[in-house]
């Protein structure tokens, strides 16, 4: 199943924090064209209270298990804010192409993104190994 950006589900807290982050970075000029695209996605997302988000939705600080459908290669990553990003350790910024493609999708969905070199990548979300809201943490 492939999900379009219009079908993203975000918690209220994630939505507020990401909107503020995008507005701040767009004013700084850090990634202005990307900020516009992300801002549009934020505006189109379904927003739910943190206590009501389904446990199969990728939220901030969720740890996800992915599979490349073409190769069968599995990978695990944690979606985080840019200041906490450590790609080598599996912590991927939500503002990176892969991070943004995963946010708000559900288990079973296929995420698509472009690498900095312009290559398209695809991954299916096999499982959410940890979601803060599902464990009772509504402040992350």
Automatic annotation (TrEMBL):
Protein's recorded name: GreA/GreB family elongation factor
Species for this entry: Pseudaquabacterium terrae
Superkingdom of this protein's organism: Bacteria
MF GO annotations: translation elongation factor activity
InterPro entries: GreA/GreB_C_sf, Tscrpt_elong_fac_GreA/B_C, Tscrpt_elong_fac_GreA/B_fam
Lineage: Bacteria, Pseudomonadati, Pseudomonadota, Betaproteobacteria, Burkholderiales
Bilayer-crossing regions: none
Keywords: Elongation factor, Protein biosynthesis
Protein biosynthesis is among the record's keywords: yes
Transcription elongation factor GreA/GreB C-terminal domain sequence ranges: 55-128
Pfam families on file: GreA_GreB
């Amino acid at each position: 199943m492939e999900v379009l950006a219009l079908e993203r589900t975000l918690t209220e807290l994630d939505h507020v924090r990401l909107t503020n982050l995008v507005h701040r970075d767009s004013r700084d000029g850090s990634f202005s064209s990307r900020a516009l695209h992300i801002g549009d996605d934020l505006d189109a997302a379904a927003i739910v209270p943190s206590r009501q988000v389904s446990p199969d939705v990728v939220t901030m600080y969720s740890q996800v298990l992915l599979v490349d459908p073409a190769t069968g290669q599995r990978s695990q990553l944690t979606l985080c804010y840019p200041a906490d990003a450590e790609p080598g350790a599996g912590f991927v910024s939500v503002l990176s192409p892969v991070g943004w493609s995963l946010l708000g999708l559900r288990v079973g969905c296929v995420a698509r993104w472009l690498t900095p070199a312009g290559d398209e990548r695809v991954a299916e979300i096999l499982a959410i190994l940890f979601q803060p809201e599902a464990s009772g943490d509504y402040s992350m």
